[in-house]
């Protein structure tokens, strides 16, 4: 049997990119879900793939997204919680604010799709001890908010170069946007958080073993803008390293992997958004075909179940997250 690999899509909407970028007009919640949801569902159906969609609660709560949410609910894919307000500074929230945020999102998602989430991914990989404790309190089965890479500060520098001038308080919120250099030292293989006398499964977003550079599909699309052969070789190398090191892959997708400049020209500031959607879909198709050749591709729930069946699972104290944030 092939080793397992999970596939998930963070359903970040147009307004959430604008909000994080500091662009005006996000408060009206402009959306592309009516385009990207049917496009992705058809894409995965054609390839017989069952994945996890992490939904933002605010989108689930809006009537204009009702049809898209119903399509997701009826699709058979797993539905996860991606917070309500999609603020990558979730780690700055108080414990009560975090509980309100996660529960509000959970309720909106369950009402809109008919599915109660058991998995969570923080917006912008934002995580804290209080988030982990709240997830356990709300009976979540797994978290997948860690992103072990050294390149977070580089991504943040690019963001600040392209973003409009932000007020001091808005810059402070984004102080560790996309993570810290020290995130590269986080475990790459799945493990369990120790939360008092209980545990919570953690499935990191996979980066390239040994080098800890990103391999999620948005990055492959970006590299393809320079050289399709280079991007393909890069991803094949990542697959080989995952196999050699016995790292269970968890590959991340975003809506912009399926949308191009012909769909949303307003997001041209985002890397890879100078391509048209047809070319992007071909790249994503090739990447997933290479992945399926080496791994059995499943959703995050199945991956978490496989992780929990192991008897020698590495443990990590949830309190260590608080110390890391304090050092930033």
Secondary structure: elements and pairs:
Layout: E1 4-10, H1 14-21, H2 33-46, E2 52-55, H3 57-61, H4 66-74, E3 78-81, H5 95-113, E4 119-120, H6 129-137, E5 142-143, H7 152-162, H8 168-173, E6 191-195, E7 198-202, H9 217-224, H10 228-244, E8 250-253, H11 277-294, E9 296-298, H12 300-308, E10 315-317, H13 319-327
Parallel strand pairs: 1-2, 1-8, 1-9, 2-3, 4-5, 5-7, 6-10
Antiparallel strand pairs: 6-7
Helix pairs in contact: 2-4, 5-6, 9-10, 9-11, 10-11
Can you tag this structure with a few keywords?
single chain; 328 residues; alpha/beta; TIM Barrel; five-stranded parallel β-sheet; five-stranded mixed β-sheet; 13 helices; 12% strand; globular
Q: Helix tally? A: 13
Describe the sheet with the most strands: 5 strands, parallel
Briefly, what CATH class?
Alpha Beta
Compressed to H and E, one letter per element, the order equals: EHHEHHEHEHEHHEEHHEHEHEH
β content, as a range?
5-15%
Relevant CATH superfamily? Glycoside hydrolase/deacetylase
The gross shape turns out to be: globular
Number of domains: 1
Question: Overview of this structure, please?
Answer:
The chain has 328 residues and is an alpha/beta fold. It has a single domain (4-327), classed as Glycoside hydrolase/deacetylase (TIM Barrel, Alpha-Beta Barrel). The chain is built from 13 helices and ten strands. It has helices at 14-21, 33-46, 57-61, 66-74, 95-113, 129-137, 152-162, 168-173, 217-224, 228-244, 277-294, 300-308, 319-327; strands spanning 4-10, 52-55, 78-81, 119-120, 142-143, 191-195, 198-202, 250-253, 296-298, 315-317. Strands 1, 2, 3, 8 and 9 form a five-stranded parallel beta sheet that branches. It has a five-stranded mixed beta sheet with strand order 4-5-7-6-10, sandwiched between helices. Helix 5 crosses helix 6 (129-137). The longest helix is centred in the first third of the chain and has 19 residues, at 95-113. It is globular, with a radius of gyration of 18 Å. The protein starts with a strand and ends with a helix. The model has no long low-confidence stretch (mean pLDDT 93).
């Amino acid at each position: 049997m092939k080793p397992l690999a999970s596939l998930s899509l963070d359903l970040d909407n147009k307004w959430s990119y604008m909000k994080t970028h500091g662009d005006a007009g996000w408060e009206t919640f402009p959306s592309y879900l009516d385009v990207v949801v049917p496009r992705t569902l058809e894409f995965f159906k054609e390839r017989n793939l069952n994945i996890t969609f992490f939904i933002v609660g605010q989108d689930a709560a809006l009537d204009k997204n009702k049809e898209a949410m119903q399509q997701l609910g009826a699709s058979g894919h797993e539905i996860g919680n991606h917070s309500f307000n999609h603020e990558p500074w979730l780690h700055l929230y108080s414990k009560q604010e975090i509980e309100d945020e996660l529960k509000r999102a959970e309720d909106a998602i369950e009402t809109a799709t008919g599915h109660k989430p058991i998995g969570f991914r923080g917006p912008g990989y934002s995580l804290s001890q209080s988030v982990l404790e709240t997830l356990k309190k709300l009976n979540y089965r797994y978290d997948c908010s860690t992103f072990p890479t050294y390149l977070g500060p580089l991504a943040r520098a690019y963001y600040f170069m392209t973003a409009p001038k932000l007020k001091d308080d808005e810059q402070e919120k984004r102080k560790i946007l996309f993570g810290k250099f020290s995130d590269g030292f986080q475990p790459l293989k799945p493990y369990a958080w120790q939360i008092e006398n209980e545990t919570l499964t953690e499935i990191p977003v996979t980066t390239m073993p040994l080098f800890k550079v990103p391999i999620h599909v948005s990055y492959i699309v970006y590299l393809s803008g320079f050289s399709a052969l280079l991007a393909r070789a890069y991803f094949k190398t990542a697959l080989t390293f995952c196999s050699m090191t016995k790292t269970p892959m968890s590959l991340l997708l975003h809506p912009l992997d399926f949308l191009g400049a012909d769909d949303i020209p307003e997001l041209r500031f985002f890397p890879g958004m100078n391509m048209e959607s047809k070319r992007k879909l071909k790249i994503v198709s090739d990447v997933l075909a290479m992945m399926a050749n080496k791994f059995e591709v499943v959703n995050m729930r199945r991956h978490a179940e496989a992780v929990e069946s192991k008897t020698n699972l590495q443990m990590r104290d949830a309190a260590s997250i608080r110390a890391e944030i304090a050092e930033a």
